[in-house]
Each structure stands twice: as structure tokens, then as C-alpha cells.
Amino acid sequence: MARAPWFPTLDLGPEWALLELLCPGPLEGHRRAMFLRLLRGGVHGGELVEQAMRHRLLPVLADSLRDEEVADLVQPSLRSELVGALMASRRRNATLARVAGSVCRALGEAGVPVAVTKGAALEPTVYGGRGCRRMSDVDLMIHPRHREVVSRIMTEAGYVNGLYDWREHRIAPLPRDIQLTYRLSPDHLPHYLRVDEDGGVIAVDFANSLTWAASDHQVDMDDVLGVLVPVRALAGEVELPTLAPRFQFLFTALHLFRESWFEASVERGNDRLLKFADLLRLWRADHADILEGLPEVVVRYDLGALLGWVLVHTDRTFGTSMAEELGVAGAVSEGWLASARAKGGRGLVWTGTMRERLHARDRQGLFAPAPAAPVSSAP
Questions:
Q1: Burial letters for 280-306: b for 16+ Cβ neighbours within 10 Å, e otherwise?
Q2: DSSP label of 255
Q3: Mean of the pLDDT values across residues 91-116?
Q4: Which CATH number fits domain 96-243: 3.30.460, 1.10.10, 3.40.50, 1.10.3470?
Q5: Phi-psi region of 16 (alpha: psi -120 to 50; beta: other; left: phi over 0)
Q6: Which of 61, 186, 276, 327 has the smallest number of CB atoms closer than 10 Å to its CB?
Q7: Is 116 helix (H, G, I), strand (E, B) or coil?
Q8: Which residues lie closer than 8 Å to 109 by C-beta, 6 or more apart?
Q9: If pLDDT is split at 50, 70 and 90, which confidence band does 329 have?
Q10: How confident is the model at residue 38 (pLDDT cuts 50, 70, 90)?
Q11: What's the predicted TM-score (pTM) here?
């Protein structure tokens, strides 16, 4: 039996529903019809833009204006601001794509397998290469045994570890507490920065784990980087190595888990609709390849609970059936779905739906201490 079309409810307002409609992909069919109906009914432009900015979806919202019927329903002043945001995103993304290509070439010549992830991988593929997937830095995946050679190559290329001081347009030394954090959590190298000619900064982030350093669930990076898929960006100007579909999807889901399960990340507002949009668009684009390769990986590395947490919440929010199709729906309980982790490692719980949590502007007070009996085993 065919699944009924998914429609977002309007209990959180038409502005929020518009953003939810954009997450699965370009507007079409029943989603487009509802999008137009909501616009005709009237929306608050300021509210819509604020929510889109908070969830890094402003360029995606602007991209919807390619539909002339949508564009005609948007006030000219708002339409102008959205187009400006999209143009800025295109320029920034092009710069970062070229940086990603340059860094990947340098590492490849040194015999270091590397893959682009997040925006650099998704923008030219599941987002259509139109600049609508906002990028703030270049995210790359390497094997932990290559950390030293990567550090040397990046240093020789003029990058430094530090923090960007936008007021002075300079890179300040990395504070000692942040240096200590990277030493204690070696799943990432410190960001490599260089001042950009256009008045900004270029940041390159190297991850060497699909999860995080303290997690009991580690995926063999030889497996992850064993097969890379080349992707053309900027109309073929740049070739970028990406992860195979099963690992691209898995990394995207596990990154969403990390940003949405840890209290510190949630309080910083890192659990955004954009991350769900990434997952939904990957599923839509690579459904067959993900289904073919991912279930065995999930079993091999015991990732059912982590992946199930993400996919069940996504399914309930967007009417998909990813958890069931990948065989992880039974790996989660309601207690596990309502769990989180405090800064000091204590268990937390939260109530309500994921969409209600994402909609909330106040990130404080979302969680409460878990009861004395553990909600579930920690990952």
C-alpha cells in the first residue's frame, strides 16, 4: 500500500511549516501545492526569515524563488533580501569548494586518503549545485594515522590553528583550554585557518571518526575511506572525493545525533533543521545504495541504537520510513528516544516532539535530570 503524502501540521505556525516543506528537496507535487497555499494565506516575513536564519535554511528558502509562482507571492523587499542571501552563499560556497579541491589534491599527492563531507559533499549533489546549501567551512574526513602528515601539509600551505578575531581581521592563538579539549577528544584536529582575501576567513576542519573520541561505537576508518566517489563541483571546475553513499548517510546521521543528543551542542543551537534536510535529501538521492550497503555496517559496528534515535525522530517529523527500512526501528525504546547527555556525563530526559524542540528558540531548560534508574544504556 502506498504511503499517504506527508504534510506538516500548522500548530507551530505557517512560517515553520514552510521551512519543513523545503527540507525533503525542491518543491514539487503536494509539497509545492501546500507551500503555495500557505503563502497565499499570508505569512510573517520577519518570522520566516528569522527561523530560516536560525536553522541555516535562508539560501534554501531563497532557492524556492526559482519557482515563478512562489516568487510572485513573496513581497518584493523580502524577495530582494532572499536573493541577496543566495548570491552571498554561492560566492562563499564557490570559494570553499576551490579550497576543498586544493587541499584534497595536496593530501592525495602525499598519499593521504581524504573525503569531503557535509556541505562540500552535499552542495554539488543533493542540493543541485545552486549555492543553497550554506557552508561556513570545509569539512574533511581522514584516517587518524594521518593526523601528523595532514598537520604538516596544512602548515606548509599557510594555515594555522587558532581563533578568528573578526574585529581585528586576524587569527588569534588557540586558547589553552581549547587546546586541551582537542588533546582529550582526538576525533578532530584543531581547525586550520587562514585569512581570506575577500575579508573573511577560510577554515578547514578534519575529522577522523564517524562518532566521537569517547564513544564506544567506533567505525574502522579503513572501511570508511576504502571506497571514495568523485564528485564534480562548480560546473566541473573542481573534483572532490566523497564517501560512498552508505558512509555518507551514516556520517550525516551520526553527526546529527552528536549535535542533538549532547546538551552542550543543543544549547549552542546546533540541532538545526538543516541537518535533517541533509539526511532527507541523501535518502531521497541514494535510497537504493544506502539500503544495499548500510544495514550490514550498522550490525557490524553495533550502531542500531544511535542510528535508530536519529531516524525514528526524523520519520516522526517528516513522515518517512527510514528506520523501518534500515531495520533499526526496533533498536530504540521511547525512553532512549527521550534521552540526552549532560555536559558532565549525566543522563538527561526531554519531553515533546523533535519538531517542537527544534522550533523552540530558548535552548535552556529543554532537559531535565534522568530518573535514578537509567533510561537506557549509553552509547
A1: bbbbebbeeebbebbbebbeebebbbb
A2: H
A3: 97
A4: 3.30.460
A5: alpha
A6: 186
A7: strand
A8: none
A9: very high
A10: very high
A11: 0.94
β-bridge mates for residue 139, sequence order: 205
pLDDT, one tens digit per residue, over 125-167 is 999 999 999 999 999 999 999 999 999 999 999 999 999 999 9
Query: Element (H or E) spanning 280, and its range?
Result: helix 273-300
Q: What pairs with residue 193 in β-bridges?
A: 160, 203
- 16: its cell numbers: 515553520
Q: CA angle, 187 as apex, 349 and 313 as ends, to 5°?
A: 35
Quick: pLDDT tens for 246-279.
999 999 999 999 999 999 999 999 999 999 999 9
Altogether, the residues listed in the chain come to a count of 379
**Residue 80: how many CA atoms within 13 Å on its side-chain side?**
3
- On whether the CB atoms of residues 100 and 140 are closer than 8 A, the answer is yes
Q: Rounded CA gap, 266 and 165, in Å?
A: 24
| Residue in the structure block whose three cell numbers are 588569534 | 172
Specify the domain boundaries for CATH 3.30.460 within the chain: 96-243
Closest CA to 187 of 136, 251, 245: 251
Question: Measured between alpha carbons, how far is 307 from 311 in angstroms, rounded to an integer?
Answer: 6
Determine how many CB atoms are found less than 10 A away from the CB of residue 335.
14
Q: Which alpha helices (H) appear in 140-271, and where do they start and end?
A: 147-156, 176-184, 221-224, 245-261, 263-267
Rounded CA-CA distance 75/85 in Å is 15
Q: Do 321 and 273 form a contact (C-beta atoms < 8 A)?
A: no
pLDDT at 377: 47
